[in-house]
């Protein structure tokens, strides 16, 4: 029986928004999965000119060359820059900057789950400042029993210790825990921690292939109540 539900943030609870934000998020996921080097999400976002999950109007117009140059200064940056160049061929960065918003139905779903007595948590590669902006903007703090960000833990996705910290702190066994995320890395995190159920959502970076190892794939968190019988 599920007692604890752990969510990723970007692409799971919050829209990725601008295409450059999505590219940065994809890069973080790709890099973290395929290397053992942890680069904080904030550093990759800085390289893209992304501030507080917005594309800053002054530096958001960075050329591909400038972004690649910034990435190359990071650990194993050559590999990240190479990956980006392949991806960016099909992306555009000339859209107007827009705020990242909560995904439709998430707020209502979180309230329902909280009111039903489920313990809720977030584990994110984002930093505490960005997390607080999102949580407080939509009044979600009361729903969560634990929030872990990149600067509040020595571990990073997909290390099982991230989920273990939450389960230990809330005194919930892995057999009673569910992980919900939008990327291959989120699915791998749930597998490494051996939680009871892993839910993939198509509202962010991942597609059905990325989420193939999830127990079930939904369009978004908003479908959880009906599709999972919660």
UniProtKB/TrEMBL annotation:
Per the record, its GO cellular-component terms are: cytosol
What the entry lists under InterPro entries is as follows: HAD-like_hydrolase_sf, HAD-like_sf, HAD-SF_hydro_IA, HAD_2, HAD_sf, PGP-like_dom2
Which SUPFAM superfamilies does this chain map to?
HAD-like
Q: Which Pfam families does the UniProt entry name for this protein?
A: HAD_2
Which one of the record's GO molecular function terms can you name? phosphoglycolate phosphatase activity
One Gene Ontology term from the biological process aspect of the record: DNA repair
- Coiled-coil positions are none
Recorded hits in NCBIfam families, A to Z, give:
HAD-SF-IA-v1 (TIGR01549)
This chain belongs to which protein, by name?
Answer: HAD family hydrolase
Which organism's genome codes for this protein?
Macrococcoides caseolyticum
């Amino acid at each position: 029986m599920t007692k604890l539900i752990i969510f990723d943030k970007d692409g799971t609870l919050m829209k990725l928004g601008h295409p450059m934000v999505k590219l940065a998020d994809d890069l973080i996921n790709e890099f973290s999965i395929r290397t053992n080097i942890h680069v904080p999400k904030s550093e990759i976002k800085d390289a893209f000119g992304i501030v507080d999950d917005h594309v800053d109007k002054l530096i958001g117009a960075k050329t591909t060359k400038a972004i690649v140059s910034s990435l190359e200064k990071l650990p194993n940056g050559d590999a990240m820059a190479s990956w980006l160049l392949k991806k960016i061929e099909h992306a555009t960065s000339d859209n107007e900057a827009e705020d990242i918003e909560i995904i439709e139905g998430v707020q209502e779903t979180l309230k329902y789950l909280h009111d039903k007595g489920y313990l809720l948590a977030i584990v994110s590669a984002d930093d505490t400042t960005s997390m607080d902006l999102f949580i407080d903007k939509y009044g979600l703090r009361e729903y969560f029993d634990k929030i872990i960000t990149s600067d509040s833990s020595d571990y990073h996705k997909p290390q099982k210790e991230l989920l273990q910290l939450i389960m230990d702190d809330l005194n919930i066994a892995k057999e009673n825990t569910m992980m919900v995320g939008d990327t291959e890395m989120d699915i791998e995190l749930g597998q490494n921690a051996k939680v009871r159920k892993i839910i993939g959502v198509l509202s962010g970076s991942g597609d059905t292939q990325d989420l193939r190892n999830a127990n079930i794939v939904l369009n978004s968190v908003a479908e959880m109540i009906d599709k999972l019988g919660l």
